[in-house]
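[Solved] Which block belongs to which protein?

Original post:
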Amino acid sequence: MFKKFLAAAALSFIFSSQAVATPYGDCMEKATKVSEDAVVVCMNDETKNLMQQTKTEYEDILKNEDFAKWNNGNGMQKGNLRNMYDSFIGYREKYCSLFALSMVNYLGTEKYNNAKCVMDMTREHLIQIRRFIQNANSTIN
C-alpha cells in the first residue's frame, strides 16, 4: 500500500503546478522519499499558507467600497464576508471528510486523502476570491 501511495504521490507532485522551488515543493520532494505522514505534513503546512493568503485576500476585498457595503458588517468579524468564510470552512471540512473516506480503497490513507482534498479546495477558493478583486479592479475600454 505504501509503495502504491508513494508512486501516486510522486506522480501527483510531478504534475502539480507546485513542482517548482517553493517551500511546499521542497517539502514534497523530501517527503515522498520518506513516508505518507511526511507528505501529509507538507500538505497541512501548505494549507496553512494558503489560508493565510486567503485571509489577506478577504481583507483586501473589504478595501473596495462596494464590497464593504455588501459585507454589511464589521470587517471580517461579522457580516456577509465572515459568513461566507465560515460556510466555506464548514463545507470544505465535511466534503473532504467524506471524500477521504470514499478514496481509501483507491489511493493512500484517509488522512492523506483528507489533507490533499483540504489543500486543493483551499487553493481553489483562494483563486476564486482573487477573481473578485481582479474583476472589481478591471475596466472595460
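(Second protein starts here: sequence line, then its C-alpha cells.)
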Amino acid sequence: MDSFYKLLWKHIFTTELIKVKYNINSGNDLSRLRQMFSGFSKNYNTKKAALDYINEWGDRFWIDEEHRTTQLTQTLEKKLEANVDASVYGKAKLGVKGLRDLTEEEKQDIVHHGQTAIVDRVQMASLDNVINVLSENVFNDKNNIWYICIDSLDDDWADDKIRFKLIKALFETIKSLQCMSNVKIIITMRLDLIESLFDSITSPGFQSEKFSGYFLPMKWTKKELTDLLSKRVDYLFEHRYTNKSVHINDVIAKKVNGKQSGIDYILDRTFLRPREAISFFNKCMEKAEGQSFITEDFIKQAEYNYSSERIIAIREEWSRDYPYLKDFLEVIRGMKDGVEVAHLINSKFEEFSGKFSDTCKEKNYPFSEEAANAYLGLSRYGLAFMQSILNVLYKVGVVGLKLTPQQRRVFSFSENINIEKYHIEMTTKVYVHKAFWVSLSIRSSEQ
C-alpha cells in the first residue's frame, strides 16, 4: 500500500495547489486552465500527459479534499477490478474471509496489478508529469512562496497502523515535491508521535536520521511569552483605559509567595506554550474584574481553575495513547514534591495496584500482570510497576525526574531527553510540574 499512500498525498497536494493558484471554483474555469497548460514550455509527451491528468481530474478540482480522495480511490479500484481475474477479485472483496481463501499466487496477482499496473506505472507517472510542468512553469518564483500547512495528525483520525503508514508516506512525498522551489509544506507534530512513527516502521533500510534535517523544534522562551502577554495587555488598556503603553508588569503583582514576580509565577505553571500562558492570565483577569491591578490573591484564586483545566486537557491530549492516564495520576496525588521513588512504593500504592489490575482486565489495558505482581509482592515487583507509571507521567509532562544526585531534574516537554523506565531507580527523585500542584494536592514548601 505504500505506493498508493504516496499517490494519495501527491494527488491531494497537486490538485489543491492547482485549485488555489488558478482560482478554480467550477467547471467553467477548466478551459482557462487547459489553455495555460498548453502554452507551458515542456516537451510534447510530458505536456500531453499533464493535460491528460487535468482532463481526467479537472472536473473534481473544486470539490473538497475528502471527496477528491474518495474519487481517486474509487477510480483505482475500478482499474484494479478490470485488470484482475474476476473470480479472484470477487473473493478479495469479501473481506478477511475472502482474503483467507485466496492462494498465495492470487494474492501476488492482486499486489502486482495494484502496485505496478495501476499505481506505479500509469497513475504515478501521469501525476509526476503534472508536477514537472508545475515546477518549471508555475511554482518556480522564490519570491512568491506558497504554503501548505497540515495540523492535527495526532488526532484520532485513523487506526495507528494505517495512520503511521500514511504519515510516513507524507514525509516521503514532501521530499519528492522539493522540485517546486516556492512550495513549502509545513507539518506540526508532537515529538512523541514522531518517535512512535519511527518505532513502527519496519521497512528494510529505513533510517530515521535521514529525516532529521526536516524537523525544526518549536520552543518559546519566558521573554517571548512575557512580550506576547504584554502586547495583549497593552492592546486592552489602549482601547479601554489609557493611551499610554502598558506592560504586563505594570498590572500584576511584583511578588508571589515573596519569591518571584507574578508573571514568572504564571509561566512556571505552563509548558512554555502560548495557549497555556494566555489561559492562566485570562483567568487572572477574570478574578480581577473591575480592578486595575492583579494581586497575589487573584493569581492564587485563578490557579485553582487553571490547574483543574490543565489536568483535564492533559488527559484529553493523551487519551489515545494512554487511556489509563487518569488512574496513573492518582498514584502521585498528595505526594511531597521531590520525593524519592522508594517512598511512593507504599501501602497506598499496593492498594492501587490491586484495583488497577482488575481495571486492566475490565478495560483491556496493558500492565495487568505488572499491577497484579506489585499487589501480590510489593517489595519484589513494586518498582517495576512504578517504573512504568512514572515513565508515562514523564512522557506526558506531568512529572520531571532527577535520576541521580549528580544530574538535574528534567521534564520531557522542555529537555527532549528520552528516559526509559529502566533508568528509574529507587533513589530517583520525582517532581510534579507546578501546573498540576493545586489539582493534585502536591505538598511543597514553595506554596
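Accepted answer:
You had them paired correctly. Confirming on the second one: The first strand starts at residue 146 and ends at 150.
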